Amino acid sequence: QFFYDSEGDKRVSHSVKQTYYSEHDYKYGDLENDVKVYITPQFIIGNNILYSHEYSQLARTQTSVTYKDDLYSASLLYTYQDTPTSTSGALSSKNYNYMTLIASTNYFENFNTFASVNYDLNDDLFKSWSFGIKKLKKCWDYSITYKDLTLPSLTSSGADSVNRQGVMFLFNFYPLGTIDYEITTSETEQKL
């Protein structure tokens, strides 16, 4: 649904999606509710909620603030995710609580440069960051991205983390889909 003001400018968009799996034992996927409020055509506040029918709880909620014009775009997102896990027959959950900043520019003709950073509020660390450049064509594009990812790991001596760094090449053919290739440049372990 879209709602417009008297001047024809979009002010609110709303969608609800429900997936149904006819081939699975559990028939219903997560219910998704997405609302966006257009303060101006460039400034948007959004909220996306996923409800898990299987676990009868909110699976994820994400709130975003976005600025977008012809040259620049930036988004700040807050995400809370409650992921149920089953260990030894008992059901527990793992909570993820993080902030994401994404920025990009189309300042250079036919090129898009972009960067992102994810900060984990629970673990008080930067989970990942990346930057890259994308070449835009009529019906396809390609990009090169450098990414640094910190993955927590439990060891017998306590909590550690594994740091993965790499370059990813991505080719996107709009009528067909995406092809990608990742090269990991280094991997290091650190004490948390």
Question: What's the average pLDDT?
Answer: 86
Distance between the termini: 46 Å
The structure class reads: mainly beta
The low-confidence parts are: none
Number of helices: 0
Biggest sheet strand order reads 1-2-3-4-5-6-7-8-9-10-11-12
Largest sheet: 12 strands, antiparallel
Percent of sequence in beta strands:
over 45%
Beta-strand segment tally:
12
Helix and strand element order: EEEEEEEEEEEE
General form? globular
Instruction: Give the fraction of residues assigned to helices.
Output: under 10%
- What is Rg? 20 Å
What can you tell me about this protein's structure?
It is a single chain. With 192 residues, the chain is mainly beta. The chain is built from no helices and 12 strands. It has strands spanning 2-4, 10-20, 28-38, 43-52, 57-68, 72-87, 90-105, 111-120, 125-136, 140-155, 158-173, 177-191. Strands 1-2-3-4-5-6-7-8-9-10-11-12 form a 12-stranded antiparallel sheet, with no helix packed on it. The protein starts with a strand and ends with a strand.
